[in-house]
Design goal:
The complex is a heterodimer. Helix content of chain A is 33%, strand content 14%. By secondary structure, chain A is an alpha/beta fold. In chain A, the strands form two sheets. Chain A has a five-stranded parallel sheet, with helices on one face. The longest helix of chain A is centred in the last third of the chain and has 20 residues. Chain A starts with 12 loop residues before the first helix and ends in a 23-residue tail after the last helix. The C terminus of chain A is likely disordered. Chain B is α/β, with parallel strands linked by helices. Chain B has two domains: 105 residues, Urease, subunit C, domain 1; 302 residues, Alpha-Beta Barrel (TIM Barrel), CATH 3.20.20.140. In chain B, 27% of the residues lie in helices and 23% in strands. In chain B, the strands form four sheets. In chain B, strands 1, 2, 3, 4, 5, 16, 17, 18 and 19 form a nine-stranded mixed sheet that branches. In chain B, helix 7 links the parallel strand 13 and strand 14. The relative contact order of chain B is 0.17. The mean pLDDT of chain B is 97. The chains are: A alpha/beta, B alpha/beta.
């Protein structure tokens, strides 16, 4: 069984989320330096194992690990022994035998990171599994709202709408859960076909298919990616109709409150879920989400692998252990 | 060759009494109180144990031919004998499929070679279980096949199913359906409900079972040809069968121990041990299946024993094959989880399935002079836990590790031979 891992937001709980977001503030400060690199994880080895292509998330984790001076390895299934019939377990155990402190795992199958955590002593960080969970996305989303709206104390009273293909979305599952843990009121906006079966109180605070009814009243409008293949499964009749009912059109953009944040996990389908230029939306924080992803992933890596000492000495000399570091 | 089974609670379709049973060669020679052991009698002390007709499992996957790394007819027969079974119906999803006389003869002969229980090969309804062309029912019936099914898949095409029923009429065979409308279960790995929503797993909706069950009940109503329904898993399915029986339709149904003992919450572990088809469902469904067994709506307990090698189950849920072991734990799970008189549990494991399998002339018989000696001797009260390494099955995919079971087979008599003695199989 693994050391501490981050498989779902449940592994952190609300206090753990706050701890990581506080750490992310320090990491963001590091990232603003002319030389954004600290020795906090020197000697640690982080292996990115990506069984599903995701350039963005992989680059984000790689950058985060390097800024903490960890050594990184990357394993991409497309160029790997998986194609030679090696099992997932054998792959993980082989890499683990090379000496790995953390696996960052992306897999198309829900639950794969949880299985991997059962096979290795290393920490496992879920970088997205199937439709299940994407906890670092949820953390970077929370961090983005917290910094944009100066909400360091939590999200009590914050109103969020998350719009689109919730059924197939690991981002929705983790982000909704994290925001609710921090006190936000989350409404899921989608047609029945794009909702999980039995979506209920355990999943969200409210469910509707009428975006216009609440778009003027939310603090955060979170748009999910609408995948083209859904059209072939009779989940929505056409992308045009989807945009008409659920897209951020110019008409709907005009209904947004002046402070309302517009978020998207990327990559965007312009003209589908977002039919306006985000650059012209004063509340769009989509680029900040990407930037914050580095700091948040640094925070997660440090939280799981760090010594408990200070994060960010400005010189290599400052390696003394103090009590300022994070504790459980 | 003779055995004397002394002091047991004899339970069969005629009731219960305490007594001794003498078996000579393949038959029951004498039943009564305080029989004198003869010089050649091997004495089996059954004091405190139940002596019942051997069990009949309508639904096992023995994997031979084709997947001998997971199970063979010999290892599966051993597991069956240890579970108290004297007859098992081998499902046809072998490689090659049991759709020809050659393959079913092979399976039957392998069963005879193992000699631990009677292996009854089923036949597939369609060639290669491809859902397109009927297998030669009459030829296969001539080779002794009584039960036909495409198990693993339902027969999707309603025209083909109607024709199959009509053609089967009068051949003395029974068609058995795996109820699953596949268009509703593409990619599904677990029960569709609250739990799959949270786990981010594609759901297998109850309606996919119930729609096909309803269709086939109506085809039975139309054709008047009997049908058997495999491994019912939902509350609504139980109700559909209950109503159809009330209408007088000649249908029978089975349920598995896992569908009346384990819920879909088990999948939260993402452990593919718990992946099975149809999937584990909710506490509500479990209660309905137990009630269906108790009131006779569901005729038989069948295991759907489905061995898989460890590597196959050490995969993410969407990649792992469905299925779990059942033969060695069925009695223990049934007695731990069913609130039914013991005689009714035995009925659901013995003479009722014997009748559905068409072997009521030699299995599930009363324990009386002249009857074939196919018997299970078990302790109905002992609590125990499964130790996977000690299973006779070649595979280890039991979902009952760490679960308290009640009731365990001690001896099994097959065709007059003590094939299991003191929980150890062999002959």
């Amino acid at each position: 069984m693994s050391a501490r891992s981050l498989l779902t937001i449940d592994d952190l709980g609300s206090s753990g989320i706050m701890r990581v977001l506080d750490l992310a503030d320090h990491m963001a400060e590091v990232n603003r330096r002319p030389n954004p690199k600290v020795p906090a994880l020197r000697g640690k080895t982080v292996c990115n194992v990506f069984f599903e292509d995701s350039t963005r998330t992989r680059l984000s984790f790689e950058t985060a690990a390097k800024r903490l001076s960890a050594d990184t390895m990357t394993f991409a299934a497309s160029q790997s022994s998986i194609n030679k019939g090696e099992s997932l377990r054998d792959t993980i155990e082989t890499i683990a035998a090379m000496g790995v402190d953390a696996f960052v795992v992306r897999h198309k199958s829900s639950g794969a990171p949880q299985l991997i955590a059962g096979w290795t002593q290393a920490s496992v960080i879920n970088a997205g599994d199937g439709w299940h969970a994407h906890p670092t996305q949820a953390l970077l989303d929370a961090y983005t709202v917290r910094t944009a709206l100066s909400r360091t104390g939590g999200f009590d009273g914050l109103r969020m709408a998350i719009v689109g293909d919730v059924k197939h979305s690991r981002v929705a599952r983790s982000t909704v859960q994290a925001f609710r843990m921090l006190g936000a009121h989350v409404t899921v906006v989608a047609p029945r076909t794009l909702l999980p079966p039995d979506v209920g109180d355990r999943f969200a605070d409210a469910v509707t298919d009428r975006l216009d009814d609440l778009i003027g009243d939310v603090d955060v409008l979170y748009l999910l990616r609408m995948q083209h293949e859904r059209m072939h499964e009779a989940l929505v009749p056409s992308l045009r109709e989807y945009t008409t009912r659920f897209g951020l059109t110019p008409r709907r953009a005009a209904m947004l409150g002046p402070q309302t944040l517009v978020m998207h996990p990327g990559p965007m389908n312009r003209g589908v879920e977002i039919a306006v230029d985000p650059a012209e939306l004063p509340g769009a924080v989509i680029t900040q989400q990407v930037t914050n992803g580095i700091a948040v992933r640094m925070a997660v890596l440090f939280d799981l692998l760090g010594s408990g000492g200070p994060i960010a000495p400005t010189t290599d000399a400052a390696t003394d252990v103090t009590t300022e570091g994070p504790t459980e | 060759m003779s055995l004397l089974i002394t002091g047991g609670r004899i339970i069969d379709r005629d009731g219960e009494r305490i007594g001794d049973v003498r078996v000579v060669d393949a038959h029951v020679a004498e039943v009564g109180p305080a029989l004198e052991p003869g010089d050649d009698d091997r004495v089996i002390d059954a004091a405190g144990l139940v002596v019942s007709p051997g069990f009949v499992d309508l639904h096992v996957h023995l994997r031979e031919p084709g997947r001998e790394e997971a199970e063979t007819i010999e290892t599966g027969s051993r597991a069956a004998a240890l579970g108290g079974y004297t007859a098992v119906v081998a499902m046809p999803n072998t490689d090659p499929t049991q759709d020809s006389v050659e393959v079913v003869d092979f399976v039957r002969r392998q069963g005879e070679r193992a000699g631990l229980c009677e292996v009854l090969p089923s036949g597939s309804i369609t060639v290669g279980r491809a859902g397109e062309t009927l297998t030669p029912f009459a030829e296969l019936a001539g080779a002794g096949v009584t039960l036909f099914t495409d198990d693993g898949n339902g027969v999707q095409d309603p025209l083909l199913m109607r024709r199959a029923l009509e053609y089967a009429d009068g051949l003395g065979i029974t068609l058995a359906q795996h109820c699953e409308v596949e268009r509703l279960t593409a990619g599904a790995v677990m029960h569709e409900g609250d739990c799959c929503s949270r786990l981010g797993l594609p759901g297998w909706p109850a309606i996919a079972e119930e729609l096909m069950l309803h269709r086939d009940i109506e085809l039975v109503r139309l054709t008047g040809v009997p049908m058997h329904f495999l491994h019912l898993s939902t509350a609504r399915s139980v109700e559909l069968v209950r109503r159809a029986k009330a209408d007088g339709l000649s249908i029978t149904a089975e349920a598995t121990p896992h569908h009346f003992s384990l819920t879909d919450e088990r999948l939260a572990s993402y452990d593919a041990i718990y992946k099975v088809n149809p999937p584990l469902r909710t506490a509500h469904d479990i209660a309905a299946i137990r009630a269906g067994l108790a009131d006779g709506t569901i005729d038989a307990i069948a295991t759907d024993h489905a061995p898989h090698v460890a590597e196959a189950k050490e995969q993410p849920l969407d990649q792992a094959p469905p299925g779990m072991l059942g033969l060695e734990t069925a009695l223990g799970v049934s007695l731990a989880h069913l609130d039914m008189p013991l005689a009714e549990v035995i009925a659901a494991m013995s003479w009722k399935p014997a009748s559905i399998a068409g072997v009521a002339d030699r299995h599930g018989r009363p324990i009386a002079v002249g009857e074939p000696a196919n018997l299970a001797v078990f302790d109905p009260d002992v609590e125990w836990e499964v130790i996977p390494a000690r299973l006779a099955s070649k595979s280890r995919n039991t979902p009952y590790v760490g679960v308290a079971l009640r009731g365990r087979v001690v001896h099994t008599i097959f065709n007059g031979h003590a094939v299991v003695v003191d929980g150890i199989a062999g002959r």
